[in-house]
Write a structure and sequence with these properties.
The complex is a heterodimer of chains A (219) and B (809).
Chain A (H helix, E strand, L loop, with lengths): L1 H24 L1 H4 L9 H23 L10 H29 L7 H23 L3 H7 L8 H20 L16 H24 L10
Helix pairs in contact in A: 1-3, 1-8, 3-5, 4-5, 5-7, 5-8, 7-8
Chain B lengths: L11 H4 L28 H8 L27 H27 L5 H23 L5 H26 L4 H24 L8 H24 L6 H24 L13 H13 L3 H5 L1 H22 L20 H6 L2 H15 L27 H28 L8 H25 L9 H28 L7 H4 L4 H5 L9 H26 L7 H7 L1 H20 L4 H22 L12 H17 L27 H11 L1 H8 L3 H18 L4 H6 L1 H4 L8 H5 L1 H32 L6 H49 L1
Helix pairs in contact in B: 3-4, 3-5, 4-5, 6-8, 6-30, 7-8, 9-11, 9-30, 11-13, 11-22, 11-23, 13-22, 14-15, 14-22, 15-16, 15-21, 16-21, 21-26, 21-31, 22-23, 22-26, 23-25, 23-30, 25-31, 30-31
The chains are: A mainly alpha (219), B mainly alpha (809).
């Protein structure tokens, strides 16, 4: 049971990584002058859309958590709207946190907001897919001994590593190397992306190596 | 620049560059040399100056490039050599003047070499003047003069290089090793202090003895080998001796039973943070951008604290976590943690707002310094000036009101002791004085001529009056630091019944330790009984708080009294930053207290994250009060606050004023450091209050006497375990010193390793000097803060002893 779960987890994560790689290469066939650094905002939007789409598809196909009891259309619609609202809220919250951390308040608003969007894509969207718009469940997953399945464990790891990557991405900004990727927020978005990818790779491996110690009370 | 594009280092490629000169006339009469000549960089200044017909700058010791002064178009013979000799003579004269002035002020030039160069110059100038008077002299004579002058200039340069650009690698390494050993020692003793067999007294005496022994041995050695006694070396040996003893003892006692990981008790995230801080001192970009970097690190630490609270389940009340098996056993800390998220966001907001008052480092064109750092007097618009003045006075009043509110909240404002009276009446006076001084200084130009004398007089008197008030307040605080209500218990009739298990005067410390908590609890009961009789409604535990917050009340009062004169030394609008400073340290203390469980009697410890956050906040405030660790941005105007006419010849007073302005944040945070230990005990009362609120007053009044035992003891818990209290204070001081110590170690290492770096004089060396001064100020402040706590402790002891004796009579 557990091993099969881990295998499925690995495949879904590989698909997510693949979608990020695609978002780098596919647009250059359709758009002229596309490059990750120069048309960064465009890439942010495309990458966000790709990752969200892959996450949604995987959620529908794999169904990691038990399906909810109610399945009426209105319930699904309200759930979807709630998810959208949560996603927007998380974008705004991230934006506020970036500003509190020292991002410029008025200049580069669009850049900062898109950065918030991509970070939400890496963190909030998987949470929404896996746990639904349920804040209590989120708070439970991100606390000690709060995870109840392999999926939640990997969610924890990828989210934390995305945040860590974002945090580390801020460090090159003051250096005087004068490289194009040192500009706000490019280094942070790249850091977030690398952190997310690293989390995607690490979490199945980590869970596989520690599968003896991990005991989930639900399974 | 190297082939990889690096620059600023000391490799051959980085320190040499091509010199390209263009001249419409031929410069080289003969064919130019095969291997091009090397021209030192400092020779550019005199050459360009003379070519432009300007005087050579006084401090220059370069040598003009003689080839550039060959005037060929002139028809006269020897004119080219004469022009070269003239240029060199002008240059040599300037260098000679500089050398004389310098040697009169400093003694670091070699005497013999100096005399030789002196003679060389007099001979060359005599030759030159003689040639000028009899211009029919031969070409050869001119050439000798040129050679002599060049020899003089090169000799001066060589002598100065030998004397100035000298790095004593042995001393650098020794100093760094000493610093590292001291830091390690702080860590070691902070670790040791919690072990049961730890005694304070040998810690002081034995190292002092070892240090003295080291000094004596070293002085003896130096005397026998007839070397000069160097105080620096002696001091180093003394420090090494005192450190070596403890290190050796630790090495011997370490053994193999303990793992090496126990040596680093710092939790891993905080260790990472300290490492980043350590490494950032080695990059000139990070030192220049430290104001931003420190805010980033502080924000990260705060979010980390909040996240950690949540991770451990202390952030949210258990009812939010729906699944019942996840609700861990509920402790009292859970209730406090509910607002930790709000505290964290508030802190981030405060830090961001304080960041608006930044001053840009030099040579960063994209950065604009905050316009709010300039004094109000420089503002033009009358309306805006009035608004700003109102805001500044509002900040002052808010600061005062906050402190009074805090003291009232813990009941310390009820006491009739002189320091409390001072807080009630003296502090508003200080606020009034400060506001009046600001009004005068910002509008001094608009005063009518008749009042000029009055204005100047007031601007002398007012700052001195505020400083004097603050000093007298501090003295009062030192004289009577106990701000508890003594009269309430003196006439209490039931005191004897409580003390029946203990008869006779307390003879030993152990007796006193036994009696003190009893008296405390009895006081609570007594006051509660009175309140019960007089009014059933109202805060029942008010009187109990007075002794429970006696340490922190003294600390907060002292900090406020310190802050006002420091505030006066800054520009008016910095008062908003000071308000933010108090607010954010209050929030941080609350946030930290939410994560610390209250140990009832065990060893009290202050966690590393608390100490690191405190040190980071001190640096952050240094930057947000408009300072930068470079000399041009020192606020020199602070020296004239209260002394608008200058200081005459005395230098220590202006130095003190400017130093107090520059290192105000270091001083305030170091003095306030003991609050880190005290605050969790203060927060104990809130938890218990909240818990009891649903009961209602009547029910509580009935169960009063029984519940007296569970009443929050707050800071009296510290008195219950005096040994642990002392150890905790020592440990707190050592931890703070360690965090500061690794900063200064990093600065020293950076300045010594990167001594050939392009930015060493611009960035690393000033940073090191500022950090070293800040470290000294912080150490003194820390010592003062701990001494104040000890003084309060002693005063509380004698106060309680008097109570006991009064009862027995």
């Amino acid at each position: 049971m557990k091993n099969a779960d881990i295998k499925r987890l690995l495949y879904t994560h590989l698909l997510c990584i693949f979608s990020i790689i695609l978002s780098i290469f596919i647009p250059s066939f359709f758009l002229e002058n596309f490059s990750v650094l120069e048309t960064h905002l465009m890439w942010l939007c495309i990458c966000s859309v790709f990752v969200t789409a892959v996450n949604l598809v995987l959620y529908v196909v794999v169904k990691p958590n038990a399906s909810s009891k109610r399945s009426s259309l209105s319930y699904k619609v309200t759930r979807f709207l709630k998810c959208c609202f949560y996603f927007l809220m998380s974008c705004f919250v991230f934006h506020v946190i970036f500003v509190l951390y020292g991002a410029p308040l008025i200049e580069l608003v669009l850049e900062t907001f898109l950065f918030a969007v991509i970070l939400s894509t890496f963190t909030t969207v998987p949470c929404l897919c896996l746990l639904g718009p349920n804040l209590k469940a989120w708070l439970r997953v991100f606390s000690r001994n709060g995870v109840t399945s392999v999926w939640e464990n990997s969610l924890q790891i990828t989210t934390i590593s995305s945040f860590l990557g974002t945090w580390l991405g801020a460090f090159p900004i003051p250096l005087d190397w004068e490289r194009p990727w040192q500009v706000w927020p490019i280094s942070c978005t790249l850091g977030a992306t690398f952190g997310y990818v690293a989390g995607l790779i690490i979490s199945p491996l980590w869970i596989y190596w520690n599968r003896k110690q991990l005991t989930y009370k639900n399974n | 620049m190297t082939k990889s594009g690096d620059h600023g280092g000391d490799s051959e490629l980085e320190i040499s560059a091509a010199l390209f000169l263009y001249s419409p006339t031929a410069l080289f009469l003969r064919a130019p040399p095969e291997e091009p000549e090397v021209v030192p960089q400092i020779s550019l200044v005199p050459t360009l100056a003379l070519l432009l017909g300007l005087p050579i700058p006084f401090g220059n010791i370069g040598e003009v490039m003689a080839e550039l002064f060959s005037a060929v178009e002139d028809s006269q013979p020897h004119s080219s050599a004469l022009a070269q000799a003239t240029a060199l003579y002008l240059n040599a004269q300037q260098v000679f003047r500089f050398l004389h002035t310098y040697s009169a002020a400093a003694q670091d030039l070699q005497v013999e070499e100096f005399h030789r160069l002196n003679n060389l110059f007099s001979k060359a100038s005599a030759d030159y003047l003689r040639l000028l008077q009899s211009p029919q002299g031969a070409e050869a004579a001119l050439q000798t003069v040129i050679t002599e002058l060049q020899e003089f200039l090169r000799g001066v340069r060589a002598m100065c290089i030998e004397s100035w650009a000298r790095f004593s690698l042995v001393r650098m390494a020794g100093g760094a090793a000493l610093l590292a050993a001291a830091c390690f020692l702080c860590l070691l003793i902070a670790q040791w202090a919690t072990s049961p067999g730890f005694h304070l007294r040998p810690l002081l005496l034995i190292p002092v003895a070892w240090g003295l022994a080291g000094v004596v041995v070293c002085a003896g050695l130096l005397a026998t080998t007839e070397l000069k006694l160097d105080p620096v070396v002696l001091g180093a040996v003394a420090a090494m001796g005192s450190v070596l003893h403890i290190l050796w003892k630790a090495w011997a006692g370490w053994g193999s039973k303990r793992p090496l990981a126990a040596l680093l008790p710092i939790p891993r995230p905080v260790l990472l943070l300290l490492l980043i801080r350590f490494a950032a001192f080695f990059s000139d970009s990070f030192v220049v951008a430290e104001a931003r970097a420190i805010r980033f690190l502080l924000g990260s630490l705060i979010l980390l604290l909040v996240a950690q609270l949540h991770w451990e389940g202390k952030l949210l009340p258990p009812k939010l976590l729906t699944i019942p098996r996840f609700s861990a056993p509920t402790g009292p800390s859970r209730h406090k943690g509910t607002h930790a998220l709000g505290l964290g966001v508030g802190l981030l907001l405060c830090i961001r707002l304080a960041g608006l008052f930044h001053r840009c480092p030099e040579e960063t064109p994209a950065c604009h310094s905050s316009p709010w750092l300039s004094p109000l007097a420089s503002m033009v618009g009358g309306r805006a000036k009035n608004l700003w003045y109102g805001a500044c006075v509002g900040a002052l009043v808010a600061l005062l009101a906050a402190v009074r509110l805090w003291l009232r909240r813990y009941g310390n404002l009820k006491s009739p002791e002189p320091p409390v009276l001072f807080v009630r009446w003296g502090l508003p006076l200080m606020v009034l004085g400060t506001a009046a001084y600001w009004a005068l200084s910002s509008g001094a130009d608009e005063a009518p001529p008749r009042l000029r004398a009055l204005v100047t007089g007031a601007s002398v008197v007012l700052p001195r009056a505020v400083a004097g008030l603050a000093a007298s307040g501090l003295l009062l605080l030192l004289w009577r630091p106990v701000t508890a209500l003594a009269e309430a218990t003196m006439g209490a009739p039931r005191m004897r019944t409580v003390l029946t298990p203990f008869s006779g005067p307390p003879t030993s410390q152990a007796d006193l330790d036994y009696v003190v908590p009893q008296i405390y609890r009895h006081m609570q009961e007594e006051i509660r009984g009175r309140l019960e009789r007089t009014k059933s409604q109202g805060p029942l535990t008010v009187a109990a708080y007075q002794l429970g917050s006696v340490y922190s009340a003294a600390m907060v009062t002292a900090l406020t009294l310190l802050a006002f004169p420091l505030l006066l030394l800054h520009a008016e609008r910095i008062s908003l930053v000071f308000l933010l400073l108090f607010l954010q340290s209050f929030l941080l203390l609350h946030l930290l207290a939410a994560g610390i469980p209250i140990t009832t009697s065990g060893p009290f410890t202050v966690p590393w994250q608390a100490v690191s956050a405190w040190a980071l906040m001190a640096t952050q405030t240094f930057y947000s009060t408009g300072h930068q660790p470079v000399f041009p941005t020192i606020h020199w105007h602070a020296a004239f606050v209260g002394f608008p006419e200058g200081h005459g010849s005395s230098t220590w007073l202006p130095a003190l004023l400017v130093g107090a302005n520059t290192f105000a944040s270091h001083l305030l945070f170091a003095v306030g450091c003991p609050l880190l230990l005290l605050w969790p005990f203060l927060c104990e009362s809130q938890g218990s209050q909240k818990r009891r609120q649903p009961h209602g007053n009547e029910a509580e009044a009935r169960v009063g006497p029984e519940e007296g035992e569970e009443e929050p003891l707050m800071e009296m818990r510290l008195r219950d375990a005096p040994h642990h209290f002392n150890v905790a204070l020592l440990q707190l001081g050592l931890k703070y010193l360690f965090v500061l110590g690794i900063q200064i170690l990093a600065c020293a290492l950076a300045a010594s390793i990167l001594r050939r770096h392009l930015m060493v004089w611009k960035v690393f060396a000033p940073k090191f000097i500022f950090e070293a001064m800040g470290f000294i100020v912080s150490s003194v402040g820390l010592f003062l803060g701990l001494a104040l706590v000890m003084r309060v402790d002693g005063a509380v002891s004698s106060w309680l002893q008097q109570l006991v004796l009064a009862q027995q009579r």
